[in-house]
Amino acid sequence: MFRTTFNCCKSYPCHNLGVENSSEYQMESNHLGYPAIHCRACGSYPPLVDDVSVALLLEEKINIHFGQPLTGCTHCENVFFIAYCTNKPAENSAKRYGHTSAGQQRLKCGNCQNVYSLKSIKQVDKLERLLHLIADNKSTSEIIEQLACAPKIYYQLLAKLADILRSYARLNEQILLRSNFLALHTESDLLRYAGDKTLWCLATTEAQSGYCLLYNHNLLLTTPANTVYEGKASSILPEPKVPSILAALTTRYQSTMRRPHFESLHYGINSPLRGAHYVKPSTLSYAHFQLLRLYCQPAKHFHHYIEHESAIRGAALMASSEEIKAEQAEVFFVYRHFTGGKELPSNGNNIGWWSDRWYGTHYGAYCPITYRNKYPVPFSLFDANGPKKVHQWIQDHQAASLKSAKSLDAMIEIQRNIYNFCHLLKSGDTPAMRLGFTKQVLNLSDLLSRAITAVQGGQV
Predict the structure, then answer these.
(1) DSSP string computed for 110-176
(2) Which of 109, 125, 224, 314 sees the fewest Cβ atoms within 10 Å?
(3) Long-range contacts at 448-454 (CB < 8 A, ≥ 24 apart)
(4) In Å, how far from its chain's centre is CA 442?
(5) CA 146 to CA 129: how far, in whole Å?
(6) 81 in the Ramachandran plot: left (φ > 0), alpha (ψ -120 to 50) or beta?
(7) Which residues pair with 200 in a beta bridge?
(8) CA–CA dist 47, 6 (Å, integer)
(9) pLDDT for residue 374 is more than 70
(10) What does the radius of gyration of the chain's CA atoms come to, in whole angstroms?
């Protein structure tokens, strides 16, 4: 399911793309001034990746985002989209199997025959009040005061609310995202808090609806990784305010060339955060795109639309290298520009050191990284600002201060679901409506009610 090493060629259409331990590799070259692999087949020098750090971060993130504490078989369905006992996508194949002495429904798993009980959600009134207070941007101290509870109880309620909403969303996603084609749009941004505490984050939306599937930050809550972020001067690519999209793209390529290597992305100085460690953006990228494989696996064909950023490019290619070779997946750069892409010729324009070919569109330009003369599924993007809108929503609905990472993931998960199910787009519907999860806008009470019903019933 997940790749274990990322130290291989990342150039398309080299035949070594994604190939581990090729005889054509020089495994540790410093020819360009940084530790890299030299692929003699295509001449590229992809920087070395710390596989151990990626694995450590991936293990933590999969439990945060896809752990299944509230629904499904406790024996084999440890993670949404995966049934470990069969190594196949999890199916909702459980059958009713009587009740416990307390009256809770028991189910028998269709995969492993294990018998388990569905969860009973308590303190619903407090959970609903908490959801409304969070949506109103109340501070932690205000919420604790209005709930009249101890801080420990508040954090327990917060975690429970996040688990309920996450389970409801994943149940929907697990069932309804199985289609012949899936397009995912991923871009980065910064979450800023008081005291120079800044997180580098990735938002991935379903490209035709703007529905946020995954929101990740570069904090590691467990053992520190080897690739800890050092907080150097920012090397984030600029957004040139020039009326030429060609000049703007050229400037971005030149900025990347000034880095120590292509994936060496820094976003400035950071203050320490209690209970967590910052990891390098590229490390998060590799873990993030491995998690996206959970969505892509059932699709016969999928696209990754990514921002023009080399620290993301390699991760997207490594997460889909086998499917790219089988002509089941494509990867595209996407770039927004205020003038649109009329300046670029209809047959494209080569830009940058790889002679990437960029094509104009109404919002700017796109570039097929995995270039083919004919696509089984054409490039199609409903809203080029989808991930940007999610980033802005998360930023606008976070407390100004971040003293620890204790409640950060729970708060982000709650806001992800409010955005998807309750936030109206300019088109007059919500991302969840556009994706087909609901037929109407849900208010906060409706969202929680549906989520609890789904969790207690084991299905949407």
Answers:
(1) TTT--EEE------HHHHHHHHHHHHTT--HHHHHHHHT--HHHHHHHHHHHHHHHHHHHHHHHHHH
(2) 125
(3) 448/124, 448/127, 448/128, 448/131, 448/161, 448/164, 448/165, 450/168, 451/164, 451/165, 451/167, 451/168, 451/417, 452/121, 452/124, 452/164, 454/71, 454/167, 454/168, 454/171
(4) 24
(5) 9
(6) left
(7) 190
(8) 10
(9) no
(10) 23
Q: What is the pLDDT of residues 310-350, one digit of tens each?
A: 999 999 999 999 999 999 999 999 999 999 999 999 999 99
Is residue 78 very low, low, confident or very high in pLDDT (cuts 50, 70, 90)? low
Q: Please, what is the angle between helix 151-176 and helix 444-457, to 10°?
A: 70
**Cα–Cα distance measured from residue 449 to residue 27, given in angstroms and rounded to the nearest whole number:** 55
Q: In whole angstroms, how far apart are CA 186 and each of 110, 228, 261, 267, 313?
A: 35, 23, 22, 18, 10
- If phi > 0 it is left, if psi is from -120 to 50 it is alpha, else beta; for residue 123 that is left
Name beta bridge partners: 225: none
CB atoms near residue 376 (< 10 Å) = 12
**DSSP state letter for 394:** H
CA nearest to 68, candidates 109, 127, 96, 126: 109
Q: Find residue 32's DSSP bridge partners.
A: none
CA distance 166 to 170: 6
Rounded distance between C-alpha atoms, residue 297 and residue 295, angstroms: 6
Q: Which two tokens stand for residue 217?
A: 């930050």
Which structure tokens are listed for 421? 């199910």
Sheet holding 301-307, edge to edge: 212-217, 197-206, 181-193, 301-307, 329-336, 364-368, 356-361, 349-351
For 153, the token pair is 């109880």
**409-443 per-position pLDDT tens digit:** 999 999 999 999 999 998 899 999 999 999 999 99
- Structure tokens, 129: 């009040």
Are 91 and 79 in contact by the 8 Å Cβ rule? The answer is no
Q: Provide the residue count of the chain.
A: 460
Q: Work out the number of other CB atoms within 10 angstroms of the CB of residue 110.
A: 15
**For residues 256 and 66, what is the distance between their CA atoms, to the nearest angstrom?**
33
Instruction: Note whether 365 and 335 are within 8 A (CB).
Output: yes
- Nearby residues of 314 by Cβ (< 8 Å), 6 or more positions away: 6, 10, 46, 49, 262, 263, 282, 285, 286
Helices (H), 258-355: 281-296, 310-318, 321-325
